[in-house]
Design goal:
By secondary structure, the chain is α/β, with parallel strands linked by helices. 29% of the residues lie in helices and 24% in strands. It has a five-stranded parallel β-sheet with strand order 10-7-6-14-27.
């Protein structure tokens, strides 16, 4: 989360009917003064808040979530029963626990009730775990003595037709959380040295945008580009939509800013060959050619990495729609380059010395592929996704042909038209007005292309949905394949950095809405089409977001990480190294020599910067010598005990809640 002020002002995300009930300024100031006074008083009575008190004092807070929970779960009954769980001092219900008043309730109760543990039963922890952790910390309690229970997705939404069962399940989940917290220990964030320098891999439009945004914030940047110039796929592209600005001008403008900025170092004709380390301390090796052409090898340490490695255009297989068999079958990038090389004064389109009187554009080549219809890729996979930018690109080029060469007929063969961006639908409208003829085919019956006669070298046959499935044949002089985007060829980086990829083989973010430019490896961020098909506007936005996230990592002298990592008890460790063998994260666990009772022995040691808290090491240790902070084995035992424990019957409880 951000500052305390941001946390206080956060309301119910995504609910248009919810209005956050903020305190008036004078009451807010008074509340803060009271809170600080109580915090000081509380610090005297509880020396280490959230520590090991004689008897745990747990506060339970249940959220109605505006009806998302309370429409199914009897939250009042849950609170009533929760008060009977040993160790629970208070249990309260609020319509929106994430709101200002809800958070104030938690922080205020910590001080008034001398709470040393807090359970919040609400929505997914992905949404508000950090929100409540901030509220707990403002109350003076260790933020890791708080447990989040998801009774929305796991109870009310999962059992909407069984309110009684959902209520019982919520009670048992809270009981498990209370049991876990009883054996909890205060934890502190892991703080690691932070090298205030960023690596940007890729010198296309995304890489240049990320580099300049970081440099403008005073952060040193090392920009590595595998080719001999900046610009990536935009080089030689011609006008870009929807602005129709020349791509060369756009690239030149960004390149000037990159090359002129004193905080940016550029390495052309170079590539990153080795990446090791962790957030704040990545060690990299860059190999390439220096300005004079001599081999270059450079070691560097950076704090964050921005992956702006881009995409590749789909390469049709030989014979696919006669590509490679007929010279007049081109991919879209090839056609754009050809069009750029034609004199702007020319009024007749030629290719290989032959006049082109008719052109067909074919959509979805290499995208939206179907099993049994399309030929798999060399790795056996299909590109089932939509590449998103092809439709508008085809319409842009079709319109350009009609404007420059009005005597050339243009035919468009599509499954459907997806001009989703602002101003892009105009290309479809204008192409229709300019005389482009559209045919629509079913994805299961794509057009076929055969050699034609002398007057028309190619014949495209299609079952046209716009004429109710009539089979039509169109003779054309040229066929342009609207090829899609496929993931960049970076297997070495993916392996060395242990990056996740999706089914589409693009780099995968943690969450498309909550963490859209972050990967599962802390300190590594995504920019542009390395993540998936995007147009230029989306690419620039993603690159800017990645730069902001990277800059946030450098805002403090030390990198602060959650403490949920493995911890070795050297008294129990016998040095068998099964944990090291099982660990998938190189360097996270290693065997080191230590002195015990005058003898030098080997024991496992955890690198907290590389450990991701997966727990694989815990599962294989035969001596239970390794645990995860915040999820120790005894805490799992306590959760099970909490689920099955008898809760004292209360005379006010109805039959709705079946207490054991």
């Amino acid at each position: 989360m951000g500052s305390d002020e941001q946390i206080r002002k956060q309301g119910k995300a995504g609910d248009p009917e919810f209005e956050c009930a903020e305190l008036p300024p004078h009451e807010e100031a008074q509340f803060e003064r009271q809170l600080e006074a109580q915090r000081k008083s509380h610090a005297e009575t509880v020396p280490q808040h959230g520590g090991q008190a004689a008897e745990p004092r747990v506060g339970v807070y249940i959220c109605r979530c505006g009806g998302n929970i309370s429409d199914v779960v009897d939250v009042e009954k849950v609170a009533e029963v929760s008060r009977l769980i040993p160790g629970v001092v208070t249990a309260k219900v609020h319509t929106f626990m994430c709101s200002d008043p809800g958070q104030h309730t938690i922080s205020d109760d910590i001080l008034k009730e001398n709470l040393d543990r807090v359970v919040v039963a609400s929505c997914s922890p992905f949404l508000h775990e950090e929100t409540f952790r901030g509220a707990v910390a403002r109350g003076g309690m260790n933020p890791y003595m708080y447990e989040h229970v998801n009774i929305r997705e796991q109870a009310s939404w999962a059992h909407r037709h069984d309110p009684g069962g959902a209520t019982n399940k919520s009670i048992r989940m809270i009981a498990a959380a209370v049991g876990k917290l009883k054996d909890a220990r205060p934890l502190d964030q892991i703080k690691l040295p932070n090298h205030r320098r960023a690596l940007v891999i890729g010198g296309g439009i995304a890489g240049m945008k990320a580099a300049t945004d970081l440099a403008c914030r005073g952060i040193k940047v090392l920009l590595v580009e595998i080719s001999n110039r900046l610009g990536g796929r935009l080089n030689g592209r011609g006008p870009v939509y929807p602005s129709e600005q020349d791509a060369g001008e756009l690239v030149a403008d960004f390149a000037r800013r990159v090359e002129a900025h004193p905080e940016i170092e550029v390495r052309l004709s170079s590539q990153v060959t080795t990446v090791s380390g962790f957030i704040g301390n990545f060690r990299i090796v860059v190999e390439g050619l220096s300005a004079d052409g001599s081999p270059l090898k450079e070691d560097a340490t950076v704090g964050a990495i921005v992956m702006a490695t881009g995409f590749r255009p789909y390469a049709p297989q030989t014979g696919e729609f006669l590509y490679g068999a007929e010279p007049c079958v081109l991919t879209m990038p090839e056609f754009i380059r050809h069009l750029q090389n034609i004199d702007v004064r020319a009024r007749q389109l030629f290719y290989n010395g032959h006049p082109i009187h008719s052109i067909a554009f074919l959509h979805c080549v290499g995208s939206r592929q179907l099993d049994g219809i399309h030929q798999p890729q060399p790795d056996g996979s299909l590109n089932t996704y939509c590449s998103r930018t092809c439709c508008t690109t085809i319409l842009q080029q079709a319109l350009a042909v009609r404007k420059r060469f009005p005597e050339t007929e243009v035919f468009d063969f599509n499954q459907d038209i997806r001009t989703y961006g602002r101003g892009e639908e105009d290309y479809y409208t204008n192409a229709s007005k300019a005389g482009v003829v559209f045919f629509r085919y079913n994805g299961e019956e794509p057009p076929t292309v055969k050699r034609g006669c002398k007057s028309a070298p190619l014949t495209v046959t299609v079952k046209d949905a716009l004429t109710w499935g009539e089979e039509l044949q169109v003779g054309v002089d040229m066929l342009v394949l609207g090829v899609g985007m496929i993931a960049g060829d970076i297997p070495g980086l993916i392996d060395s950095m242990k990056l996740a990829t999706g089914e589409d083989r693009f780099l995968q973010e943690v969450h498309p809405k909550l963490r859209p430019v972050e990967v599962s490896v802390p300190g590594i961020l995504l920019a542009g089409t390395a993540q998936g098909p995007m147009n230029i506007q989306e690419t620039l936005c993603a690159a800017g977001a990645a730069a902001v996230k990277a800059a946030a990592l450098f805002a403090k002298e030390a990198v602060e990480l959650n403490p949920y990592v493995a911890e070795v008890d050297t008294a129990l460790c016998c040095g068998e190294a099964q944990c090291v063998t099982q660990c998938d994260y190189e360097g996270a666990l290693r065997m080191v020599q230590v002195e015990i009772d005058g003898h030098t022995v080997e024991r496992a040691q955890v690198n907290p910067g590389l450990c991701v808290g997966c727990g694989a090491c815990v599962a294989v240790c035969p001596h239970r010598a390794i645990n995860l902070n915040g999820w120790r084995l005894d805490q799992f035992d306590a959760m099970v005990d909490g689920i099955v424990a008898d809760i004292p019957r209360h005379e006010c409880l109805s039959d709705l809640v079946a207490i054991q």
